[in-house]
Automatic annotation (TrEMBL):
Top-rank taxon: Bacteria
An annotated Gene Ontology molecular function: hydrolase activity
InterPro entries, A to Z: HAD-like_sf, HAD-SF_hydro_IIB, HAD_sf
This protein's UniProt keywords: Hydrolase
Entry protein name: HAD superfamily hydrolase (TIGR01484 family)
Keyword Protease: no
Species for this entry: Lysinibacillus parviboronicapiens
Transport in keyword set: no
């Protein structure tokens, strides 16, 4: 069985690397004969630092499906159309919005250095911070709407994009149209009903509804699309993983 894991808020907390307990549980899952896949909102660049080196070549989906990697190599990147980038740029200008914009590797950032996103941004210094216009292919955009959120959402919803609101962080996360975690998993050869998914947020819905079993970590409303729910506590998460690993062991 394939086991697919979101990272932040699911098996990784406060931007810190996986704990020894979680790492061991994942290793045991693989020892039981299962395949482990990571599926995160983070681009591959920022996904790698929270994983132990032994797991950095596992299959992974980044940027909510915009990046797909296997064996340590990015095998596919899905970018916005030029027209969509121009339309989002006009919204950024009109509302004077801070942003994080990811290209296929480098990034542009104008948000606060106190925001959690900045603290998790390229910790291994693998990329370059550049001016927005220097990014060739725009793959993922995070906007910081402040108190203008509803007005901004009204404008964004007119565009051909995939959009996720993260209320706790007051950010709007944007991917190209039709791009989500399930779309990325398909590109890794994952079949509907042939995997177990762990997640905790709205961007996990797409894979929850296609999974054989899905586990919501915590009490986010996305839990209504999962058939299992577990407390956002390491001991509980590990116990659930062990239970499902043994259940589907060949």
């Amino acid at each position: 069985m394939k086991f697919v894991f979101d990272l932040d808020g699911t098996i990784c907390f406060k931007g810190q690397p996986l704990t020894p307990g979680i790492t061991t549980a994942l290793a045991n899952c693989m020892a039981d004969g299962h395949e482990v896949i990571f599926a995160s909102a983070r681009p591959i660049r920022d996904l790698l630092p929270v994983l132990p080196e032994s797991m950095r070549k596992l299959p992974m989906v980044g940027g909510n499906g915009a990046f797909v990697a296997s064996n340590g190599d990015t095998i596919e990147v899905s970018a916005f159309s030029v027209e969509t980038v121009e339309a989002i740029s006009k919204i950024i200008t009109a509302f004077k919005l801070p942003y994080l914009i990811d290209g296929d590797w480098d990034y542009a950032y104008t948000g606060s250095e106190d925001h959690p996103i900045y603290r998790n941004l390229d910790p291994l210094k693998l990329a370059k911070k550049v001016v927005f216009t220097e990014l060739k292919d725009i793959v993922k955009i995070v906007l910081f709407p402040g108190e203008q959120q509803q007005e901004i959402l009204t404008e964004l919803e007119k565009l051909p994009i995939s959009l996720y609101e993260h209320m706790s962080e007051n950010i709007v996360d944007i991917s190209p149209s039709g791009i989500d975690k399930w779309n990325g998993l398909i590109k890794l050869g994952v079949l509907e009903g042939d995997f177990v998914a762990f997640g905790n947020d709205a961007n996990d819905k797409a894979m929850f509804v296609k999974a054989k079993e899905s586990v919501c970590v915590g009490m986010h409303e996305v839990r209504k699309y999962a058939n299992l729910q577990v407390a956002s506590e390491e001991v509980a998460i590990i116990a659930m993983l062990q239970r499902l690993s043994k259940k589907y062991q060949c």
